[in-house]
Amino acid sequence: IETKIPVQSRELWNKHKVQKFNTSEEFEEKFISHVEWTLARSLYNCDDLAAYQATSQSVRDNLVIDWNKTQQRQTVRGGKRVYYLSLEFLMGRALDNALINMRTDTSAQDVGKTDQVLTKGNTSREMIRQAMKDLGFKLEDILEQEPDAALGNGGLGRLAACFVDSLATGNFPAWGYGLRYQYGIFAQKIINGYQVETPDYWLNFSNPWEIERAEIQVPINFYGYVDRTNGEQSTLAPSDWIGGERVLAMAHDMPIPGFKTSTVNNLRLWNAKPTTEFDFSKFNSGDYKNSVEQQQRAESITAVLYPNDNFEQGKELRLKQQYFWCAASLHDIVRRFKKNGRPWSEFPDAIAIQLNDTHPTLAIVELQRILVDLEKLDWHLAWDIVIKTFAYTNHTVMQEALEKWPVGLLGHLLPRHLEIIFDINWFFLQNVEKKFPHDMELLSRVSIIEDASSDRQVRMAFLAIIGSHKVNGVAELHSDLIKTTIFQDFVKIYGANKFTNVTNGITPRRWLKQANPKLAQLISETINDPNDDYLLDMSKLTELSKYAEDAGFQKKWNDVKQFNKLRLADLIKRLNGGVDVIDREHIRNTLFDIQVKRIHEYKRQQLNIFGVIHRYLEMKEMLQSGGSIEEVANRYPRKVSIFGGKSAPGYYMAKLIIKLVNSVAEVVNNDAEIQDLLKVYFIPDYNVSKAEIITPASDLSEHISTAGTEASGTSNMKFVMNGGLIIGTVDGANVEITREIGEDNIFLFGNLSENVDELRYNHQFHNPELPKPLKRVLDTVESGAFSPQNHHEFKPLTDSIKYHGDYYLVSDDFESYIATQDLVDEVYHKNKKEWLKKSILSVANVGFFSSDRCIEEYAETIWNAEPVKPE
Ligand code: CR1
């Protein structure tokens, strides 16, 4: 590798080579020097926050050493690099994860000899817990100081976070590229039962996990015009884009440690800042203040994450974010490639770029622009390189989430890119015309430019398909659906091989080892895997099947669950102002029924809460008709129904669902007659770190989307990995979960996706009668039982089912849902052994859903990339 240090000086460099800390003593020394030098504090004013900062800085120092070595190794070996472009990375906290993943240079046996505290394959974490204790701190309290890096909305962003973990663990030379938003997803407060958004200024206390790369600043242009005064008329020829506004993209790097490997990869996040250039001609002296203000505007580009999940708003600033990020990332990728001096034709052998949904589709256009306008490649040679480089993952079939940008807006912001898009479209339509002559309908259906008479729009998904060599969905059902619905015509044009499936996965390091240390310990003891190798090879979990019916093992298994339920009960008490919601005495016989995810009509939290209301009404009716509380408890045994999740700030119906849950909680939780047999609680501000407490505590979790609407879901996998059972529809990855763990171990209900169209049609034209139990629920809601001040409060919710076509088919699935909930009660309360057996078998067979498997599939079938392993 190149260096400017003369040969005779290198010895000195090597003599003073930095070292990782390997023992607790070395860690303590580091910690204290960071307290003193980095934080300018001391023994006398080091609080938990300072201790968190100093610990993180120390751990980061270790990671940086491996980070540097990893980058050098990857450069020297020159394998294919993978770039994962995602507008969202929902990372959560970094410290605990780093402690689990981090390697020190001392092997377990060496440390053992010097009497260090060591347990089961978790060297650095246990070592640091002890060292922190010796220094006067409690590791758990220190970890709590870290704010979540919440740079994402939901599943799509968390998937990207799991992927970077698995990429590093699998030793792939892979970087993530994203934006460094100053404000992540808003913090959710619940006031009078309603969601209120407050800003998440997560960088408040500075972020020890980021390395500011002040030297990496990429100029990014917007607006302006295209110049072809060199006599060229064709838009296919190299053209000059004279930008009208310029900002700088500055890199911030986050080290991503792999598990049980010294590979540390990079997550590069871009921050927008003003340029230091100054256009004197535009400003006379009097305009000085205005010109500074205009420069200041640059920062707004990366100020805030758009808080929508599965919904696109079409705002100009969002398009600016997308281009800013694509242009900066591609500039960086191309610069790195050019250092090798390889010919352009080898670009796709050196680089694979994965597009996480259509948000980075402009990267396709930007690469074409770089190759044609700046590198002067022939249009068609360039386009061939582009297609071979990119691949696109689709994450949704929901119409309102499919990105389209008005031609006018795109052309104003990015005039040259619009020309290129038109040319891409022209060549594409030529080919279609050749293959299917005179099929005008087809041409207009597949055109990148949607030609609605009033405003023309650029269809980003079509552009992404045309500019990629592979397109994948995120679960089998979803990948089949995109081929038969939204992308049907493209299957006809390209053939089915361009379309493939990679079922989503989750990282077992965070979602099992970190979130559920008790279960992880029980597993490693039981399958005799003291070094936690199962976290890399999840097929080892099948060993657990042997003990599925073993009474002694079942007891241990159940004890872990009870521990985790108590942990959640504590969290809920804290969030509830110190007042307990859950009766701890009966916690062993209380079914924890949890639905946590973004609030969305398609995810059907309304179905869940209507089910709760139904249960409550049934209980009340039994009592009123003379039943005893014992009889009620026998029919409707103890249950706590837990909700959590954020609504998009502008999503009225979702916000109303939150209010309904809280209003029902108010009534049910205060009804002395039912004696704590039913409780309802909405956990405010659901996020990654709360998910780590919530997920291990579920007995049952709900994944009940209208069939065909949830592309995959990933929390379903997390709950199963933690021994929770699922009630769910035949949708997304529920289908493969059923296949893997066995249909006896999951509670499926509801209509199938192939019947959805017919059912919707039926609602539209025949207005079918509501099932009786649902009618009673809706009548009760409309009577004001949960909104005594305002009987009409929830009318939009009941109306959408009664009068507006029940688009999400709540009425069609309601009876099947409550019947299945009865079955759940039956097994949980009358046959606990059976329940525990199901729980154990679920975990035993969950291995397929490790994101490591997922990344291997991408590497093999889409990227053609290989690991670069440390020696
Ligand atoms: C889907 O709704 C899926 C994640 C990750 C979401 C969810 O079912 O698990 O993606 N889609 O693949 C999305 O955010 C924009 O689309």
From TrEMBL:
GO cellular component: cytoplasm
EC number in record: 2.4.1.1
Keyword vocabulary terms for this entry: Carbohydrate metabolism, Glycosyltransferase, Pyridoxal phosphate, Transferase
Coiled coil: none
The organism's place on the tree of life at top rank: Eukaryota
GO MF, one example: glycogen phosphorylase activity
UniProt keyword Disulfide bond, yes or no: no
Modified residues (N6-(pyridoxal phosphate)lysine): K718
Pfam families reported for this sequence: Phosphorylase
Catalysed reactions listed for this entry: [(1->4)-alpha-D-glucosyl](n) + phosphate = [(1->4)-alpha-D-glucosyl](n-1) + alpha-D-glucose 1-phosphate
Cofactor(s) needed: pyridoxal 5'-phosphate
GO biological process, one term: glycogen catabolic process
UniProt record similarity statement: Belongs to the glycogen phosphorylase family.
Function: Allosteric enzyme that catalyzes the rate-limiting step in glycogen catabolism, the phosphorolytic cleavage of glycogen to produce glucose-1-phosphate, and plays a central role in maintaining cellular and organismal glucose homeostasis.
Name of the protein in its database record: Alpha-1,4 glucan phosphorylase
The organism of origin for this protein: Lachancea dasiensis
